[in-house]
Amino acid sequence: MLLTYKFRLKDGTRREELKTLAGNVNFVWNFSNEIIRRRWKDSRFYTSKNDLHVLTKGSSKLLEINSQTIQAVAYECLLRVQKAKKSIRFRTGKKNLGWIPFNGQTVKFHSGYIDCNGYRFRLWQHRQLPEGYQIKTGSFSEDSRGRWYVNLTCEISDENWFQEPASFGSEIGIDPGMKTVMTTSDGHAYERNNITKQYAEKLAKAQRHRKKRQTKKINAKIKNSRQDWNHKRSFELARQYQTIFFGNASSGKLAKTRMAKGVHDAAWHQIKTFLSYKSLRRGGRLLEINERNSTVTCSVCLQKTGPCGLSGLGIREWSCPCGAVHDRDVNAATNILRLGRETLSLGRIA
Ligand SMILES: [Zn+2]
């Protein structure tokens, strides 16, 4: 199984070298791009991987990056062109964040530092790599704040990959929402401070004064704290429940509000990704459930007696003629759990 680890480099002393290397990577990229472009224009053929290899041969010493990296960059460029089916942009140090790919065999990882290309890069090692890992590929990458990271894609053994499973047969339904990010069928509401709102004033101020660095810093903070929250919550859920039924946000009540579908998808995309792989590591799974009618259906008598339409969005609690009193979100999550179980028993999801 492959896992990617990301460590921040102590880049203070190495930033210039990294920048130079990233510039050379861009050079290889642009060179390959140009070759592929011309060849296509002249003959309607894509340059082969081998041709690129021959054409870039011998540039390793001059560019101070090893030949595997050069090949990796040239090949990646070719793949991108083929995928885009049209010409792609040239990379520049101004427009693109630094990126230096490498082959796993060309680096040596030690605790606290990594040797690559004859350089030693020290890093903050916030976690240990599992025993018997093997670095397959990796890269150095820069973020918008100019910080450098090393990303290592490692092959690890199954026993290190699998984690303790959640108790057998445990299931939960999750109703995604705007204010309460997630509500579970067992009545737990996961709320998060509105991070964007929290930093809105600061951000506006920084932007008004054209403070670029500050703006980037605040944006990175927002992104980090959201990611951190998503990691923690998905960890808790994946550890407790074997099967997680997640309401498909864009098909349900939220799609009726003014916010675009894309916004919903973006908001839950990360949390779903985290939940999905964290469950897999514990032998569980995440299933998306179409949540249509989940808010208006009473989870006790299954009649559509709940508040509906845009006017119903403000109503948090309601009671059904059958006598059941519902919290809107918990009721929806309960319905998602029920729908999920039905779907599973019908074998609609493999
Ligand atoms: Zn009812």
* Ligands (ions, cofactors included): zinc ion
CATH topology of the largest domain: Nucleotidyltransferase, domain 5
Q: Low-confidence segments, ≥5 residues, pLDDT <50?
A: none
User: What CATH architecture of the largest domain do you see?
Assistant: 2-Layer Sandwich
Radius of gyration: 25 Å
Provide the structure class: alpha+beta
Overall average pLDDT: 87
Distance between the termini: 22 Å
Number of domains: 2
CATH class division of the largest domain: Alpha Beta
What is the ordering of alpha helices and beta strands? EHHHHEEEEEEHEEEHHEHEEEH
Estimate the global geometry from the Cα principal axes. elongated
Percent of residues in helices comes to 40-55%
Strand content: 15-25%
Largest sheet: 7 strands, antiparallel
The strand order across the widest sheet is 2-6-7-1-5-4-3
Q: Tally the beta strands.
A: 14
Number of helices: 9
Describe this structure in words.
With 350 residues, the protein is of the alpha+beta class. It has two domains: 2-159, no CATH class; 171-346, Nucleotidyltransferase, domain 5 (2-Layer Sandwich). 42% of the residues lie in helices and 22% in strands. The protein is built from nine helices and 14 strands. The chain has a seven-stranded antiparallel sheet. Strand 4 and strand 5 (119-124) form a beta hairpin. The two termini are 22 Å apart. 28% of the residues are buried. The mean pLDDT is 87. The structure holds zinc ion. Zinc ion binds next to loops.
